[in-house]
Amino acid sequence: MSETPELLRLAGCTKVYRVGAFGAKRLTAVRDVTFDVRAGEVVSLIGESGSGKSTIGRMILRLSPITGGTITFEGTDITTLEGAALKSYYADVQGVFQDPFSSYNPIFKADRVFKLIREEYFPAVGGSEWRAKVEASLEAVGLNPPDVLGKYPHQLSGGQLQRLLIARALLLDIKLLVADEIISMLDASTRIDVLNLLGELKSRGLGILFITHDLSLGNYISERTVILRRGAVVESGATAKVFGNPQHPYTRALLAAVPHLHTKWSAASTNGAGTLEEADEPASLVEIDDDHFVAIAGGAG
Amino acid sequence: MSLRVDNLKVYYRTLAGDVKALDGATFDLKDGEIMGLAGESGCGKSTLGKSLIRLDGRMRYVEGSVELDGTELPIWDAEAMNRFRFKQVSIVPQYAMSALNPTRKIGKMVKELLRSRGVEHDSVLPELRRRLELVGLSQDVLGMYPIELSGGMKQRMVMVISTLLDPSLLIADEITSALDVSSQKAVAEMLVEFREREFVKSTIVITHDISVLYQIADTILVMYAGKLAEKAPADAIIHRPRHPYTQLLISSLPEVGVRYEEKKLVGIPGRPPGLLDPPVGCRFRDRCPFAFDRCHEEPPFVEVEPGHSVACWKVAAEQSSSPTTGREAGAAESGTIAVAGGAQ
Predict the structure, then answer these.
(1) Does B341 score more than 60 pLDDT?
(2) Distance between alpha carbon B158 and the CA centroid of its chain, in Å?
(3) Which residues, in sequence order, are bridge partners of residue A68?
(4) What letters, b where the CB count within 10 A reaches 16 and e where it falls short, cover A225-234?
(5) Pairing mode, strands A292-297 and B71-72
(6) Rounded CA gap, B309 and A258, in Å?
(7) Does residue A300 carry a pLDDT above 60?
(8) Overall pTM > 0.90
(9) Angle between helical axes of A112-121 and A158-171 (0-180°, round to 10)
């Protein structure tokens, strides 16, 4: 797996917000986060609310400046990109967010998102060629073009709107997709289709950072998992190892709290599951197995 | 029976006409029963929950009756319902964050609430303090503003307030959806605890998250497009669902341990019909892999085994052909549907 090209790398990535009346207090939202995303894989970034998972997504998408550390994409530091260089970064990296309804302007037809891409990135492409390109990307996300083109956002379902946004990202022929809670607002009967779509996209070589609070979704779709707690990584590595052999007490407690469809909470063993409220000690990631890292207080490094 | 709902219909008034959000619901709730109410957004589950306590301005009572502990609830009459609200029927609303008045300290808000219902505050205060302790909240929260509490704390606070007068029926509307898994578990288990301690007699838990219901509910009622699809003990809904919609829904849920590479799950193609002018007959017909001619008629919601009711012609047909092997047929059926789903 390590021979596949590394797309995105975060190293010691930190975000500190100034809070309070005159920015007198400091809040560390993301602390020394390191992980990478390779081409053709889905990496799940899992955390509870306030864990900093969305902040990381926003920093990768340059929607929020970074305080410390580096973010590199294909070897280039992206944290200081400006102008044309930033625009070409967005041709490679795009984001899709939680609420598909607020991603659209309700006054305009939903397919306006495609028109904006054309104006910005493909002004030279002819009408019929563009239409073919749009239809191809709609079909790639499992939508029937006549069903969605020319419709207003309120005429489409959440799942359709979310897939339109992914199709919009595909128009740019992107290499990395940042998917922040993209299915938490969708209904059970349609969310799995959007999740499977991510699986199809990765088999075409796209790298995907899947940000979620839902462990079962992350487990279903991703090759590797990063578990965040209060802005820091507590455990990361191959999904099968993180879920199959969780080492950090926080990961165990999270897994124990997930409602299962076939096992009751009371029946599930809670042995070894730590509490979620533990003393916050500085911890460093230690590799305990091939591609399995756990934060251990006072550990090596 | 603590609650008996009979052919309840509640529509939404819009300029384009009536939206038939709840189109004939008939079910019972036993004393002490925790019933989960599940379905996709727009299936009418929240409408059903709300109509048992308060119809908002857009909702129109059409017909049907609701009986709680032998007394008919005048749900069409907002004034007359005041007598029952909070005391006999209470609700934990979807957004605890917006259920608490941000300009009042919590203790003062509770006091005002009790006074508005004609209840002596001092007589309830010791019980309030006891229950706060029970749910792991410090007494100090009574002197705090809602903004000082976390989401999970607010949710627990609202649950304590809603059940303070020991209502017979509690409606919990999506109370776990906005919470993290750890608070979700705590809040869900509180519902069971409240029932055990008889703070409430019976509870309706509305959620789209069936795996949470499996943890805490005795029975689950699945709704689809304004109609009841299936009601059964929680275990039967998860392991032996009979309605094609329930079967497809359950098989589309990802679980920890299920991986995309090993077992690709499938969703249900299509989307629910619009409820402004819903189709005649079974409303799941267009998405159902087993639909046949009979489905153009409305399927009755009938009991196929004790405590297990389904509205589906196919299930009804199987039932009449082999009444004794109903359960086995159901188990075999869920096997075939997984194959049918995978082929799509």
Answers:
(1) no
(2) 18
(3) A14
(4) bbbbbbbbbb
(5) unpaired
(6) 29
(7) no
(8) no
(9) 10
d(CA A197, CA A176): 14
Distances (CA, A) of B284 to B232, B241, B243, B331: 19, 15, 10, 21
Distances from the Cα of B337 to the Cαs of A177, B36, B289, B318, B344, in angstroms?
34, 24, 9, 15, 11
**What is the CATH architecture assignment of B3-222?**
3-Layer(aba) Sandwich (3.40)
Instruction: Give the Cα separation of A97 and A166 in Å (integer).
Output: 10
Fold of A6-92+174-297: Rossmann fold (3.40.50)
| Structural contact between residues B326 and B319, judged by C-beta atoms closer than 8 angstroms | yes
Do residues B314 and B241 lie in contact, with contact meaning Cβ atoms separated by under 8 Å?
no
Do residues B204 and B35 make contact, with C-beta atoms less than 8 angstroms apart?
yes
The angle that helices B106-116 and B121-134 make with each other, rounded to 10 degrees, is: 130
Q: Indicate the length of chain B as a whole number.
A: 344
Q: Is the pLDDT of residue A270 over 60?
A: no
Residue range A91-115: mean pLDDT, rounded: 92
Average pLDDT estimate for A125-148: 89
How long, in residues, is chain A? 301
Question: Given an 8 Å threshold on Cβ–Cβ distance, is A253 in contact with B41?
Answer: no
Write down the domain spans for chain A: 6-92+174-297, 93-173
Average of per-residue pLDDT values in chain A: 87
Task: Work out the average pLDDT over B191-203.
Answer: 95
Degrees (nearest 5) of the Cα angle A10, A15, A19?
Answer: 170
Q: Do B209 and A259 touch (CB under 8 A)?
A: yes
pLDDT at A278 over 60: no
* pLDDT 10s digits, B4-55: 999 999 999 988 889 999 999 999 999 999 999 999 888 999 899 999 998 8
Q: How far apart are CA A207 and CA A201, in angstroms?
A: 8
Q: Where are the domains of chain B?
A: 3-222, 240-343
Question: Which pLDDT tens digit goes with each residue over B150-184?
Answer: 888 898 999 999 999 999 999 999 888 778 888 88
Looking at the partner chain, which of B151, B255, B271 has a beta carbon nearest the beta carbon of A216?
Answer: B255
Tell me: pLDDT of B334 over 60.
Answer: no
pLDDT above 50: residue B327:
no
Model ipTM?
0.78
The answer to whether B328 faces chain A, any CB pair under 8 Å, is no
Q: Which residues of A touch B184 (CB under 8 A)?
A: 257, 259
- Structural tokens at position A244: 């199959």
Q: Which two tokens stand for residue B136?
A: 């792991």
- CA of A124, closest CA in chain B: separation in Å? 37
CB contact under 8 A, B266 and A254: no
- Note whether A261 contacts B250, CB cutoff 8 Å: yes
